[in-house]
Amino acid sequence: MSRDMSEVTRAKQGRPVWAVVRGSVEGFHTWWTRRHGHAPPTGDTDARSLSEEQQAGPSDESSARPEAVPVESALWRMRTTVKDEPGSLAALCTALAGRRVDILSLQTHPLAEGTVDEFLLRAPGELMASELARVVSLAGGFDTWIERADAHDLVDAPTRVLGLAARTALDAAELPLALRQLLGRCTIRQLPAAPVGGGRRPEGVPVEGALEETMMRLRAPDGGVITVERPYLPFTPTEFARARALVELDARLGPRVPHSQDVLTLPEGNEITMRRADARDLEAAKAMQERCSARTLGMRYHGPVGDADRYLNHLLSPRFGRTLAVQSASGRVVGLGHLLWDGDETEVALLIEDKWQRRGVGGELLERLVAMAVEAGCASVYAVTQASNTGMVAAMRGLGLPLDYQIEEGTLVITARLDALPVRPEDAVGVTGRLSSAGEVGKGEAP
Fold first, then answer.
1. Per residue in 18-69, pLDDT tens?
2. Which CATH number covers residue 77?
3. DSSP alpha helices (H): ranges in 270-416?
């Protein structure tokens, strides 16, 4: 970086506006195929790229005069580009100081021409985004982007990256969510080298990956492709290097899942165990499916019963999804539950062995999947089933959440809104640690 942080110190000397804050620390086969791209849940964070009129405006002499610090303040994340020359950062900091804007943290992303500066700011509450962008524009900044921030952004970059690396090291299913938290609001799709159910193989990428302004493509550990898109803000080479390092860490460590479990007693007195499942449970999962009736498998996979095994290896891989398994006291797998990112939505799907249905197993499993969705910041979850599947409908109603119903291609889609539901660590963290991933899935079934 050609500019030294001493510019910041000189620009703000004598002004109580610089602080460094550190904190602790996403036939029914046609429908299936159409939803091949899954990504961790995302939400609208009010991000906006300001127009030229908003970025620049006539000089306002009053903007240079310090004002009384208001009682209310707001946190903003701002990214702007400045010329890579001495004094450019100092001019920008001086302009912000003149409006009583406190710079809490700063990251620089060197480019071939110029430098992208990313700020975390605390500004007076009455200072709007358009006015803040105008101040930056007058100080020499351009291509300015601003969005609201919150307390989670008060962690400095090295601490945040180390935390994400630690989470990824503990659980392979964390990689997609870690990438989203590293890069902000974006869409992540992980395409397997051999698509489930056939279809076009993903276009390969070089070992070192590829960066194309608002899209980066990385080689997935299984030989597939991870694509990350952020149309509202181009990626910088620095962000690309960080994402590539995280994927390389994941590849070196290989498949892994937490080994925690939760033992429950059903109302009838039988004990069951819920735990994370992976490819090592493939044979047990196939055996369970063989014990299921054609009706149960048909409700789960919405297609020919003979196709059920085609999806298990993919569903059980922590690279593409998270799965909870239900075991009886004898150790036999009697149920599977999936929580899967589907673009900006999140799907839940269950399969319970016939003799264990109507005994509360599906309800217990669904509650834990929903708790994980809340922990991951999902606004809602949906289940795809048939109107005749009264067990699944009852389990969704049993959540006690606002529900929406709609028919899609003759199939019932039930959406539960999670906005007001608190996180229950004993349900989510106790069973799975912190679990997150993206993948593909079959739909709905009878619990």
1. 232 233 323 333 333 334 333 344 443 344 444 444 443 333 433 344 444 4
2. 3.30.70.260
3. 282-291, 294-301, 308-315, 361-375, 390-397
For 258-267, 299-308, 340-349, 417-426, which range has the lowest pLDDT when averaged over its residues? 417-426
Q: Looking at the domain assignment, is residue 11 inside a domain?
A: no
Query: Which residue's structure tokens are 């999962």?
Result: 285
Check if the beta carbon of residue 297 is closer than 8 Å to that of residue 287.
no
Residues 116, 118, 119, 125, CA torsion sign: positive
CATH number of residue 365's parent domain: 3.40.630.30
Q: Residue 202's pLDDT band (boundaries 50, 70, 90)?
A: low
3 state SS of 286: helix
Cα–Cα distance measured from residue 203 to residue 434, given in angstroms and rounded to the nearest whole number: 31
271-277 and 322-327 strand pairing:
antiparallel
Closest C-alpha to 318, from 289, 351, 280 = 280
pLDDT digits (tens, 9 = 90+) for 83-118: 888 899 999 999 999 999 999 989 889 888 889 999
Looking at the structure, do residues 133 and 270 belong to the same domain, yes or no? no
Q: Say which residues have a Cβ less than 8 Å from residue 331's Cβ, sequence separation at least 6.
A: none
Whether 230 and 265 share a structural domain: no
Judge whether residue 431 has pLDDT over 50. no
**Per-residue model confidence (pLDDT) at position 254:** 83
Residue 62 burial (CB count, 10 A): 8
Residue keyed to tokens 């990956």: 209
Give the domain extent around 247.
157-253
Q: Which residues pair with 78 in a beta bridge?
A: 119, 146
**Global confidence as pTM:** 0.62
Distance of CA 431 to the CA centre of its chain: 20
Q: Are residues 106 and 68 in the same domain?
A: yes
Domain boundary among 103, 135, 153: 153
- Mark whether 402 and 390 lie in a shared domain: yes
Contact 90, 141 (CB under 8 A): no
Longest dimension (CA), the chain: 78
Domain boundary among 220, 253, 286: 253
The residues with which 326 forms a beta bridge, in sequence order, are 274, 335
